[in-house]
Amino acid sequence: MSGHPPSWLAVLLLALLIPITGTLSGQTSGILFPPVWRWSNPSPHGANLYDMAYGSGTWIEVGEAGQIFASDDLSTWIPYDSHTSASLRAVTMLGGRIVITGESGTVVTGDSIDTLYLLDLGTTDWLEGVAASANRVVAVGDNGAIYASTNAVAWERVPVLFNHWLTSVAWGGGTFVLVGERGFIATSPNGNLWTPRSSGTTNDLYHVSWINDHFLAVGDGGFAASSPAGGLWTRVQTGATNTLYAAAGNANSEIVAGVSELRFKTTGGAWESRIAPAGGSQAPAWTYNCALWADGGYVLGGRSGVVVEGSQTNAAAPWTWTAQDSAIRTWLWDVAHTGSRFLAVGDRGTLLSSPDGFDWDVELVPDTATNSILLGIGGSTNLSLAVGSRGTILTSTDGFVWTQEAAPTSNDLQGVFSTGTQYFLCGGGGTLLAGVDGTNWIARKTPTTAFLSSITRHRGVLVAVGDEGTLLTSEDDGANWTSRGTGETNWLYQVRSLGEVAIAVGENGTLLTSSNALDWVQQPVTTDAWLTGVDLIAGTYVAVGTQGTVLMSTWLTNWLDVGTLTGKSLYGVTHADGMLVMVGSEGTILRSLLVPAEAPVNISRYSRTATQEVFLFTGQPGVRFQLETTPGLDSWEPGAILELIDSSGSLLYSRSLAQPGVSARFYHTIH
Fold first, then answer.
1. pLDDT at 27
2. Is residue 469 classed as helix, strand or coil in its secondary structure?
3. Which of these, 589, 623, 668, lies nearest to 16 by C-alpha position?
4. Does residue 290 share a domain with residue 200?
5. pLDDT tens by residue, 454-463
6. Tell me, what's the pLDDT at 25?
7. What integer pLDDT is reported at residue 280 of this predicted model?
8. Assigned domain for 563 exists
9. Whether residue 358 sits in one domain with residue 288
10. In the listed set 536, 567, 593, which residue is the last one of a domain according to the structure?
């Protein structure tokens, strides 16, 4: 099942239908806009997956924020442009045509994964399920929404006498079957005329599949039921007690999966759990939203991009369940660029480093720190400090070898700041520590017992912020601290000195600015998300927060919600060499090259045949560029927008000649 050659590694085209440059909602900005986000961790991606399909040797995944990925080996997943940021909830094949449905009537369809088209059905109803017969495709969703089409382009809403929220639809045995809330089930021979059926439960049902010769529906509380034709349903005791979101199988075996559930049975056998938190030949305990039988084995997809393959070497061999990546998925609480590396910290003593924001390595920490929650990271070019729960302090001079220092306090520590000659830490109970070497610390008295979560210096004034709107300043290098009345009661989570202003961000969209660190002004921000980090890159301020919030502004008084690839909470942001990096829950690390270098993208190699030409491009990793051609240097014809998507800074691009045997004579790239 995993034996397919990774052909897409050799010839890769990213048809990104986005402008190469832009402006920030009319504001003057030195960054590329809109930003194009890419996953750095988990690898190959961390998107929540909601459905999968298989056809012509290709697996397709769809998920949150309009994300589509495809693979021919279950290991390398390539992102493709859906032309939408809407959540994509279901995918199927209508013959050779890809059909994807999702949020607010979204439909994405195409005959090729790299040529997809966006349709809008003009409804706010989410289309949660889609299935196809040989000549008809049916999508179902909120408020009894049912849409049908013969080509996935022209759709009609099917009138029905029920308004249940519908979650899934399947085709098999000459019948469409849909399921939904409160145990609702209906059947149709053609997708137009629907007959409600009794399921024998009031549990919400989340998925239905056709498995060889019967339908299998699953839902809340581990409920499962089967039916040979969709009319009469029989309860199936799988042993699952948690919510089930997926079911799949063939003539010899079947599975159900959901929240920390994977149950498996062979024909005539008993259901068994195949979940083992310790790994081995069993699947990890995780939330699985979709499952598929294809190409002789099972594939499951779930939260944060987890993909598990179920396979056996021969018919007599036991089944093994293997996660297709080993990425870190612990929560990450902070990120910084110190010295020449990005550093990120999180739960369970997690400490990651990267030279470029693309590729991240797990760094070893002392065994005594592996149960610590590392909440903050920072330092200078000579010394990096990671701090966390129960006074944990780790130090490193190179970002690779870390030493645990004696804890100077039992309070949690989070804020880290270096003036270049002195280091400051802050944390629970109003804790504020000062030191010069990372080992010896002096406790400074503060006028608060609030948790201090961040510290910085602006125009010679040290500023510490924390819970209950606490904002402290010191004008004598931290010897004495004064409480500043800001009128805020929201937690001020982070404070940074960025250019000419200091900025504090926090709970309920709070954002304060100050030119002198002493007098603070609240800025209008149209979000109630926690803002957890802020940065300045090329004249553009970037604030990040919970539920995937990313705001940008050049004026500080007008913030634009630019969105990102995930609804997962973000807790830290930093940049270096034009690359913005954000970290957050479930191991999320996102990057965007906002300020590319001026160096050109080179055409390092070129070859052609009578029908095809191949280019090898090299340049700065992350750069988006356009290939232009001309037969005579008098006028240039624009081509596809491409991207050097990984850390190698290279792309092998193949395209068919418009006129076989004839090729443009000259080429160049622009970005």
1. 57
2. helix
3. 623
4. yes
5. 999 999 999 9
6. 53
7. 65
8. yes
9. no
10. 593
One-letter amino acid at 579 equals M
Beta bridge partners of 261: 258
Total tally of structural domains belonging to the chain: 3
The answer on pLDDT for 412 being more than 60 is: yes
Q: Are 497 and 458 in contact (CB under 8 A)?
A: yes
> What is the residue range of 220's domain?
49-323
For residue 340, give both structure tokens. Answer: 């020449």
**Residue 635 burial (CB < 10 Å; 0-12/13-18/19+)?**
exposed
Residue 67 pLDDT class (50, 70, 90 cuts): very high
**Together in a domain, 301 and 370:** no
pLDDT class for 662, splitting at 50, 70, 90?
low
Q: What is the pLDDT of residues 341-350, one digit of tens each?
A: 999 999 999 9
Is there a single domain that holds both residue 243 and residue 386? no
Q: Are residues 357 and 261 both part of a single domain?
A: no
Reported as a single tens digit per residue, the pLDDT across 370-394 is 999 999 999 998 999 999 999 999 9
Cα 101 to Cα 546: distance, rounded to the nearest angstrom: 26
Give the integer Cα–Cα distance in Å for 570 and 528. Answer: 14
Q: Residue 389's domain is classified under what CATH number?
A: 2.120.10.80
* Residue 629 CB contacts under 8 Å (≥ 6 apart), including other chains: 636, 637, 639, 664, 666, 667
Mean pLDDT of the chain: 93
Starting at the edge strand found earlier in the chain, the sheet holding 320-323 runs 288-294, 297-302, 307-311, 320-323
Distance CA 241, CA 243 (A): 7
Same domain, 9 and 149: no
For 1-81, strand residue ranges (E) read 38-41, 49-55, 58-63, 68-71, 78-80
Coil, helix or strand at residue 560: strand
In a domain, 40, yes or no: no
Percent of the chain with pLDDT over 70: 94
17 in the same domain as 135: no
Does residue 191 carry a pLDDT above 90? yes
116 and 199 housed in the same domain: yes
Asked if the structure places residue 44 within a domain, the reply is: no
Residues facing residue 301 across a β-bridge? 290, 307
User: For residue 610, what pLDDT is reported?
Assistant: 85
- Per the CB < 8 A criterion, the answer to whether 277 and 289 are in contact is no
319 in Cβ contact with 56 (< 8 Å): no
| CB-based contact 105:121 (threshold 8 Å) | yes
What is the DSSP secondary structure assignment for residue 339, as one 8-state letter?
T
Backbone φ and ψ of 197, nearest 5° = -125, 160
**The pairing of beta strand 560-561 with beta strand 550-553:** antiparallel
Domain assignment of residue 42, yes or no: no
**Residues 282, 270 contacting (CB under 8 angstroms):** no
**Cα(504)–Cα(510) distance, rounded to whole angstroms?**
8
| Residue 155's CATH number | 2.130.10.10
Q: Do residues 58 and 292 make contact, with C-beta atoms less than 8 angstroms apart?
A: no
The residue from 593, 622, 651 where one domain ends is 593
Under the banding of pLDDT at 50, 70 and 90, the label for residue 1 is very low
